[in-house]
Design a protein that fits this description.
ATP Synthase, domain 1, 5-stranded mixed beta barrel, globular
């Protein structure tokens, strides 16, 4: 459709979601970014956070990404992350366990912070999708 974006959400090992959308919302290191048709070209670093894709039928796809890149050019949006998972595929109980373990663990501070951000992103993705 001419009024939509072509969006691809890609993890290192697979395409997680691909299709037409009217809007994409993602969190970059510079803040939240909303992308609509006609958006200026953009290349930005993603944080461990939730990505929301509004499909051309109005359905919303919610996913958690572990950082990565957001690329926008010519009404094409690419979301590239080493790990990306749709909210419907997240085991929220395991994400809560991972969060508790990260908070109580004795890993290096940087590793602890990373594990906390990833677990929180997965929990938020499930909550947004409900």
């Amino acid at each position: 459709m001419a009024d939509t974006l072509q969006v691809e959400l890609v993890a290192a090992d697979r395409t997680v979601w691909s299709g037409s959308a009217t809007m994409v919302i993602a969190r970059t290191v510079e803040g939240d970014v909303g992308v609509l048709r006609g958006h200026a070209p953009l290349l930005s670093l993603l944080t461990d956070a939730v990505v929301e894709i509004t499909g051309d039928e109005g359905d919303v796809v919610v996913a958690a990404v572990d950082g990565g890149f957001l690329s926008v050019a010519g009404d094409r949006v690419s979301i590239l992350s080493e790990h990306a998972v749709l909210a419907e595929d997240i085991n929220v109980d395991q994400a809560r366990i991972d969060l508790d373990e990260a908070r109580g663990g004795d890993a290096a501070p940087d590793e602890t912070e990373r594990r906390i951000r990833r677990a929180e992103a997965r929990i938020r993705a499930v909550e947004k999708a409900r």
